[in-house]
Design a protein that fits this description.
Number of helices: 4
Helix content: over 70%
Strand content: under 5%
Radius of gyration: 18 Å
Order of helices and strands: HHHH
Length: 87
């Protein structure tokens, strides 16, 4: 195959392929989430965050602690779901 930099010499390409697909899906979900924020407001959202825009909403979520929970739980899911590709 086409591998001019020789990544296949030190990296399992099955793992790299799975990682690329997974990261592409996450990027598509993130882009969709950015659009949905502007078009729809979930019930109870304004009680917690007010009328914060996208970037200010991120800062408020970090200060509140909800982004840390996302990092932990999604990190664990990534580790658990990525194990079969490595073995």
């Amino acid at each position: 195959g086409f591998d001019p930099l020789g990544f296949s010499n030190f990296l399992d390409l099955r793992w790299a392929r799975e990682a690329e697909i997974k990261h592409g899906r996450v990027a598509m979900l993130a882009a969709t989430g950015m659009i949905v924020q502007d078009l729809y407001v979930f019930p109870g959202f304004k009680d917690e965050f007010g009328s914060a825009a996208m970037l200010k909403l991120h800062e408020k979520a970090v200060l509140q602690g909800s982004m840390q929970q996302l990092l932990v739980w999604l990190g664990l899911l990534e580790i658990i779901s990525g194990v079969p590709a490595i073995i």
